[in-house]
Amino acid sequence: MKDLASANLDNMTTAEFEEYLPELFESGGGSISKDPRFANFFKAHPDCASLVRDLETIAEQAKSLFEPSGEGSGSEPSDAVWSNIASKLKEEPPTTKEN
Amino acid sequence: MQTKPNPGFFKRNAPIAGEAEAIERAKNGDPDAFAKLYALHKRRVYTLCLRMLGNVSEAEDMTQEAFLHLFRKLGSFRGESAFSTWLHRLTVNLVLMHLRKKGLQLVSLEETINPSEEDAPKRDFGSRDTMLSGSVDRVTLERAVALLPPGYRMVFVLHDVEGFEHNEIATMLECSTGNSKSQLHKARLKLRELLRESQALQPASVQSADSLAEPAAQKGITR
Q1: Based on the number of CB atoms within 10 Å of its own CB, is B184 exposed (0-12), middle (13-18) or buried (19 or more)?
Q2: Is the pLDDT reported for residue B106 higher than 70?
Q3: Which end of chain A is more exposed for a tag (fewer CB within 10 A), N or C?
Q4: pLDDT confidence of B132, banded at 50, 70, 90?
């Protein structure tokens, strides 16, 4: 992973900047587009600004996928799954506390 | 690699009403309490399995396995992390074990290190007028995620959806944290490409999940 600390943004191309993005996203908390350190660079490279904002949007929207979608047969297992579990549980001894 | 807290993750794993009591009762062998835990978490666990496996039948099998495993291991839950975090970690490990047993290359990330030319994201930065911002709805994104190459999908789901840290993913997938970060970046690039393609197929007024429906059906999420 590349570290931007020693890089010169004045001479950097969009492709070169992209190489730093994996680390920047990890360290920047997902708000690279608003980071003042890169304001001039993004102004000079609108395509890169667009890329960064798109990736931020995708990462942000991904969080909404954590909660399953609304009620419906496609968002939960069939009733047979619980029937199988309940059936197998009857065959197993009760759980024991581990320490 | 330093581990940093992920506030969004903990926000998404807030305790559920009645969960703590159900856990304690289930630990003591109360079948109704275990049924309640199943009811509270079945959708999240199933959705996680489905995203990782891309196959309804396998996802149901692994959901069953995850809850049976939970029943056996519940006594070891100490409450040091949110119960849902613990359960998801247990589920992810079971799914990965299942995939390893199947001998898939997916878990080694081989295919994502050297994805096929077709699957790898293109070097296309786009322009301001094709920006996605504010126009990606949940269903569209879900369908695009299903179209990702399996290795990309795995890292994306674990990090961006489930909230696992790169060092945790690296441990689970037996790769380096740098590899995990790199694969996540490529996954997001590929998603951007898929989402822009879907938008390009639709007039602005009807841009919706429908544009990804056909490719999803053609390529399928079943392996």
Answers
A1: buried
A2: no
A3: C
A4: low
Option in A14, A53, A97 nearest B133 (CB): A53
CATH number corresponding to B107-219: 1.10.10.10
CATH topology for B17-101 is Rna Polymerase Sigma Factor; Chain: A (1.10.1740)
Q: Looking at this protein, which amino acid is placed at residue B164?
A: F
Which chain A residues are closer than 8 Å to B72 by Cβ?
Answer: 92, 95
Residues 35-54 of A with CB under 8 A from B: 46-51, 53-54
Sequence ranges of the domains in chain B: 17-101, 107-219
Residues 6+ apart with CB under 8 A from B202: B208, B210, B211
Contact call for A89 and B31, based on CB within 8 A: yes
Among the partner residues B60, B75, B185, nearest to A96 by beta-carbon distance: B75
User: What is the interface pTM, i.e. ipTM, of the complex?
Assistant: 0.83
| Number of residues in chain A | 99
Q: How much is the pLDDT for B128?
A: 47
Nearest CA in chain A to B7: A29
Q: What DSSP character marks residue B158?
A: I
Q: Which residues of A touch B160 (CB under 8 A)?
A: 58-59, 62-63
Residue range A42-77, pLDDT digits in tens: 999 999 999 999 999 999 999 989 888 766 657 899
Which residues lie closer than 8 Å to B203 by C-beta, 6 or more apart? none
CA nearest to B77, candidates B23, B33, B39, B32: B23
- What pLDDT band is residue B33 in, cutting at 50, 70 and 90? very high
pLDDT category, B1, cuts 50, 70, 90? very low
Say how far apart CA A83 and CA A78 lie, in whole Å: 9
Of residues B57 and B99, which shows the higher confidence score?
B57
d(CA B62, CA A28): 35
